[in-house]
């Protein structure tokens, strides 16, 4: 089983909102989601937690791409503009520091027009336990 398949299968919450990994390689991951009416908040725009979860899925792939179980310990997200019904969102995560215990990543979330919706940073903790998969994709 690939890392992409494992996370798409095992991250039940991300899967429940329609988020899916579409690309994973060492130090990089891409996750995508189509905004539906179930993602809208009371203001009629995409709930921030949906955008956060999409980005967090890409972050999980990058944090775990070295085969060591890694868990997010700090994330900061900044929303630049609203996502709307029908938008296709893409979260791209890039590893900035491959630290043996505390890897650091940057994420950007864009819509189908390439417009920046949000930016996120993430710090993970490598537990030292093996996180097994066969390959990335």
How would you describe this structure in keywords?
six-stranded antiparallel beta sheet, 137 residues, alpha+beta
Q: Overview of this structure, please?
A:
With 137 residues, the chain is α+β, with helices and mostly antiparallel strands. Helices cover 21% and strands 42% of the residues. The protein is built from three helices and six strands. It has helices at 3-10, 12-16, 48-63; strands spanning 20-25, 28-34, 68-79, 88-97, 104-110, 116-130. A six-stranded antiparallel β-sheet has the order 1-2-4-5-6-3. The chain is globular and about 45 Å long. It starts with a helix and ends in a 7-residue tail after the last strand. The model has no long low-confidence stretch (mean pLDDT 97).
Cross-sheet strand order for the largest sheet: 1-2-4-5-6-3
Q: How large, in whole angstroms, is the Cα Rg? A: 14 Å
Helical content, roughly? 10-25%
Name the average pLDDT: 97
Specify the biggest β-sheet: 6 strands, antiparallel
- What is the global morphology? globular
Distance between the termini: 9 Å
Estimate what percentage of residues fall within beta strands. Answer: 35-45%
Number of helices: 3
Low-confidence stretches: none
* Count of individual beta strands: 6
Order of helices and strands: HHEEHEEEE
Decide which structural class fits the backbone: alpha+beta
């Amino acid at each position: 089983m690939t890392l992409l398949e494992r996370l798409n299968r095992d991250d039940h919450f991300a899967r429940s909102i329609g988020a899916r990994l579409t690309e994973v390689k060492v130090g990089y991951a891409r996750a995508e989601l189509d905004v539906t009416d179930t993602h809208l908040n009371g203001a009629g725009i995409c709930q921030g937690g949906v955008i956060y979860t999409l980005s967090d899925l890409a972050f999980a792939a990058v944090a775990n791409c070295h085969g060591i179980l890694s868990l997010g310990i700090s994330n900061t997200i900044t929303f630049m503009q609203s996502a709307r019904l029908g938008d296709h969102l893409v979260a791209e995560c890039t590893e900035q520091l491959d630290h043996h215990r505390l890897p650091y990543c940057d994420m950007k979330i864009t819509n189908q027009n390439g417009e920046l919706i949000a930016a996120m940073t993430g710090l993970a903790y490598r537990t030292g336990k093996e996180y097994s998969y066969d390959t990335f994709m």
